[in-house]
Amino acid sequence: MLAMSKKKIVLTGGGTAGHVFPLIEVARELRDDNYSFLYFGSGAQIEKEKLQDKNIQYTKIISGKVRRYFTLESFVLNIIDIFKFIIGTIQAFIILVKTKPELIFSKGGYASLPVIISGALLRIPIFIHESDLKMGLVNRISFMFARQVFLSFPEDAYNIIKSKTFYTGIPLRKEFFSGEIKVVKDQILVMGGSSGAVTLNDKIIEVLPSLAKKYRIIHQTGDFDFKRVKNMADQLSSDVKEKYKPISFSNDIVKLIRESEIIISRSGATTIFECATSSKPLIVIPLPEEVTDHQMINAKYLEKNKMALVFDQRREGNELLNLIEKMSKDKEIYSSNINLLSFPLSAEVIARNIDELLGENLVTQASKIHFIGSMGVSMRQIFEISKSLDKDVSGSDIKLLGHSPKNIRRDLDLVVYSSSITPTSPAYSELAEAKRLNIYSIKRSKFIGELMKGRKSVTVSGMHGKTTITAAISHLLEKAQVDPSYLIGAPDRKGRPSFKFNHTGAIIVEACEYDGSFLDMKSTYGVISNIEEEHMDYFKGGISEIIKSFSQYISNIACGGKIFVNWDDDNVRKLIKLSARTIMSGKIEIVKIGFKQADYQIIDFESCSSAFAIKHNGHKQRIKMNILGQYNVFNLAVAYAVAVNGFGLEAQQVAENLETFVGVARRFEKKYEKNNIVIYDDYAHHPTEIKSLFEMIENKFASKNKVVLYEQHQQERFNRFWQDYLAVFAKSTIDTFIFLPVKKIPGRESEEKIKMRDFVEKLKDIGTQCFFVDDYEKAAKVAASQIRGGSIVITVGATDIYKAGDGLIKLLSSNKSDKLTL
């Protein structure tokens, strides 16, 4: 086999330690036989020194910077630097054309801008990392061209659209996370940064006589200010000098941070995260806003979240002493809180995202693909997506010409098969032939997982409501011009297709738990709508096995990701408790939605007007629905939380856009309305879903004559839950039920423990008016016989029961609805 050439990655950033070290750490995580690196920098000495032994090719890029203050000198320098930028862009463009890198990873800084602009012109994928809470000018420009944007602080802290952002922390050297921490009692470390901070240094000297009475102080002054500070310190008394050690710079800053009891520093992001790794109580002295506001913004965030105390350098020195004493008393609180920012897997997460984009991908590598079961909803979606990717595709299905081993050609690169295929189903002959020919074969869900790689993604899981939630999230993102890709179980009622695929950007996927399919789809965010017994032909271990499977689902959520959960669901609560270690180590945020106490609490639900409100962080947002049912209140609340919390959309706009969401096909979809007769169709097939549907119907149409046509999906489900079904139908106030035989699923069934005809007799015995018929045509005729003025008819089931509704509509339209005598 021929050796594959290494993929080139360009690293670029400004000339500070805060740019260089994170880039080196990510390169270290990626370094293997697959990648080589080029560093485009500013020419700063620290870049050359730190890259010297890293086997990373270095190139200085000519660049200028923008001075955002006005003097005659700054005006002239800005004009000169514009020409430098143009020259640097041409230089970077030529080098990129010659080297042909697969990706550019930027830490910001003016030296990176010519590289970013050139890369965008050449359509090279761009990833950027932002250290501070406020993006620097270069990263704000780069954001427009970037495919992925890595954020150091939790995403909620940024006021930006988050369709391509990932919370990753800052990649730090491994030394910050390893080794024993031995704290020196009463030791304070003061850091002014590698270049120093004159005002901060002066403030420390001012309070030093008082501070040295209790503490030992190690003071990193910066190279250029060291002599001045040392001369000032030499004038102090001997007992103060004994407790004070000024240093210009330290190559062992990790040790100094780890052994100190309290840290005093500027509020640059890198320093904050370095202190967070060792849970160090931190007092920050930000640069004033008139100099730069990014440090003040960082400081305010720390102060708000009780992660640090903030001192204004313009205040008197005794106020700093008071803050130090306060920190000494409350250091356990601040120590615990700042540790929440520690992100040990930062470099690994960024490297994994890069590897997902550039590494092996079954979809991109395959040219000829065959789909077994190509007419299923999800299979049809990925069949069409593959065609749009210029693949040579073929498909087979029982609804087309059936299945045959002859459909499997020797020249196929990949075979994709439906989850419904079992060794006893007709389609299995094709899968067996593919295996015989050693053609790589994967399940549908694995194929979707490949499509999701290298993108911000949301998977929507749970036993009920997945389709509506997925459709609502996609609707909200489209309305916000985010333009997501999506794969949904059904189109919406206005005919919006059930899938859309773009080559880049966010992707939203309905993820089914049956046969572990959702475990093949790793995502940035996850949704768990509810958990209860379902698909028991697969989950033979019952609810404990189901919860265990969902625990594996949580472990597939990206580090720094989020899970949006139904906090009213007892099984979901058990799951979160069971997965606590995974959630904590992966820095996964749990976002709770529910009618009870939750992060996004549903309040003021008005069933008559389909209106409700969501309370979050003291803010109350009113929402008007275009669809019915309390269960849909929850579904839309989840979509709201994902849009606002996950993607940074504005709450009021999200609420307005939810009003335009019309729901999805076959979810209480109105099919006919005439002469005071209304016909609906609904996909409900589990006892819980049917119970919720009936409650909504009974509440909304209390005075109407209500007729339900029901076809049970899967005998195995009916065997397991028939008593639950019986209770739901028996307690309902629906006037008339019309039942059809159970729709059996090939390859997934067991023997009949109860027949639908016997089930109907049990209902009749307790006084429920119901009929049993054996086909859709008869069901339509019986329904017609039960209609009177002011009737609501609903076809219910995860089958083709809607065809009975279509038949009824034809009868009503042709005036052939004479009552039948049975």
UniProtKB/TrEMBL annotation:
GO terms for cellular component: plasma membrane. Its main location: membrane. It catalyses: di-trans,octa-cis-undecaprenyl diphospho-N-acetyl-alpha-D-muramoyl-L-alanyl-D-glutamyl-meso-2,6-diaminopimeloyl-D-alanyl-D-alanine + UDP-N-acetyl-alpha-D-glucosamine = di-trans,octa-cis-undecaprenyl diphospho-[N-acetyl-alpha-D-glucosaminyl-(1->4)]-N-acetyl-alpha-D-muramoyl-L-alanyl-D-glutamyl-meso-2,6-diaminopimeloyl-D-alanyl-D-alanine + UDP + H(+). Residues 9-150 form the Glycosyltransferase family 28 N-terminal domain. Residues 368-455 form the Mur ligase N-terminal catalytic domain. UDP-N-acetyl-alpha-D-glucosamine binds at T16, A17, G18, R173, S194, Q295. Residues 460-643 form the Mur ligase central domain. Belongs to the glycosyltransferase 28 family. MurG subfamily. HAMAP family: MurG. This is UDP-N-acetylglucosamine--N-acetylmuramyl-(pentapeptide) pyrophosphoryl-undecaprenol N-acetylglucosamine transferase. It comes from Candidatus Berkelbacteria bacterium CG10_big_fil_rev_8_21_14_0_10_41_12. The gene is murG.
